[in-house]
Amino acid sequence: MAAGVPTSKYRWVRASDGALAGVCKGLAQAFEIETWMLRVIWLVAILWFGSGVLLYFTLWYALPRVDRLDYALDRKVLGVCARIAKRYALEVGVVRTTALLFLYVTFGAAILVYGLCYFLIPEGPKPAKSP
Q1: 3-class DSSP state for residue 19?
Q2: What is the distance, to the nearest Å, from the Cα of residue 39 to the centroid of all Cα atoms in its chain?
Q3: Residue 65 confidence (pLDDT)
Q4: Contact criterion met (CB below 8 Å) for 26 and 10
Q5: Long-range contacts of 119-127 (CB under 8 A, 24+ apart)
Q6: Residues 6+ apart with CB under 8 A from 116
Q7: Dist. CA 12–CA 55, nearest whole Å
Q8: Residues 6+ apart with CB under 8 A from 1
């Protein structure tokens, strides 16, 4: 676990020692189920029209790794999701996943909303630099 970051703040994370990006292991720990059960569910989703592949890659990108939580709120694309997560005390992985799913559903129209959010959502206070 990253030093100085409360583990209770982040429930939706990827495991650092998972088989492939740690998505299944991290989510299994969040749902408090066995990892193999979630992997079987994921395999069924992949075999069912391949829908699990897109969702897996989305979660791979969106969820922070448990050993890198210090960097969870770093900017990925303009930093809009991190701003929303800070402002409304949400988990950044959930915000990023929701934004990506919204992007898929709207076939790219969400890019306009995302860009507007960049200008409309104020940045939080800058952290003080340590000497």
Answers
A1: coil
A2: 19
A3: 93
A4: no
A5: 121/80, 121/83, 121/84, 121/87, 122/83, 123/79, 123/83, 124/83, 124/86, 124/87
A6: none
A7: 14
A8: 7, 66, 67, 69
Q: 107-115: which pairs have CB atoms within 8 A and are 24 or more residues apart?
A: 114/77, 114/78, 114/80, 115/78
Dihedral pair phi/psi, residue 80, rounded to 5°: -65, -45
Question: What per-residue confidence (pLDDT) applies to 92?
Answer: 94
Q: Are 25 and 15 in contact (CB under 8 A)?
A: yes
CB atoms within 10 A of CB 78: 13
Please write the tens of the pLDDT for every residue from 71-101.
Answer: 988 988 899 999 999 999 999 999 999 999 9
Spatial CB neighbours of 15, under 8 Å, sequence gap ≥ 6: 22, 25, 26, 29, 65, 66
By CB atoms closer than 10 A (0-12, 13-18, 19+), residue 22 is: buried
Residue 59's nearest CA partner among 106, 113, 111, 13 is: 13
